[in-house]
From TrEMBL:
Organism the protein comes from: Hydrogenophaga pseudoflava (Pseudomonas carboxydoflava)
Pfam family, one: Pribosyltran
Gene: apt
Enzyme class: transferase
InterPro entries to which the protein is assigned, alphabetical: Ade_phspho_trans, PRTase-like, PRTase_dom, UPRTase/APRTase
One Gene Ontology MF term: AMP binding
Name assigned to this protein: Adenine phosphoribosyltransferase
EC number in record: 2.4.2.7
């Protein structure tokens, strides 16, 4: 079995959650089995050890991006930066608001989280509409960092987020694609 199929076989689909008609892609089984978690992290590590893709920092999006991003940063020997939901960071922050299907949300980043010229890998568990990753990218760029790539475990291409991110010029790397949401 190839890596993509192996990982996909460990993602649970929960029908009608959080709303009727939604097929929720639950990554927690990937994290529960140490062998599967190792394969997941190693897949990202091998990609980002490549000198042309090597980041100077990993930024993880609240909250599941923290799980993958912090372990990946540790394995790569680089720093980790959390991009949090508004009101969760104690120091001076910059913020970015983005649209959701019904309303809006705001994410924040400490003003000293990255430096001008830092090469940042921006990571989350899943790309749906792309709003969170786009907002995270804008925050990092406000502080002078270069987002070298966006990464996620799961892409839901039917929701248009990956297309929106690619059209904006952000290179993407995802491991598993699910058609139908």
């Amino acid at each position: 079995m190839d890596t993509t199929a192996f990982l996909k076989s460990h993602i649970r689909t929960v029908p009608d959650w959080p709303a009727p008609g939604v097929q929720f892609r639950d990554i927690t089984p990937l994290l529960q089995d140490p062998r599967v978690f190792r394969v997941l992290i190693d897949t990202f590590v091998h990609r980002y050890m490549e000198p042309s893709l090597r980041p100077s920092v990993v930024a993880g999006l609240d909250a599941r991006g923290f799980i993958i991003g912090s372990v990946l940063a540790y394995e790569l020997g680089v720093g980790f930066v959390p991009i949090r939901k508004k009101g969760k960071l104690p120091f001076t922050t910059v913020e970015e608001t983005y649209e959701l299907e019904y309303g809006s949300a705001t994410v924040e980043l400490h003003t000293d989280a990255v430096k001008t010229g830092d090469r940042v890998l921006l990571i989350d568990d899943l790309i749906a509409t792309g709003g969170t990753m786009m907002a995270g990218r804008r925050l990092l760029e406000k502080l002078g960092a270069e987002v070298i790539e966006g990464a996620a475990i799961v892409d839901l291409p039917e929701l248009g987020g990956s297309r929106k991110l690619l059209d904006s010029g952000l290179p993407l790397f995802t491991l598993v694609h699910f058609e139908g949401h």
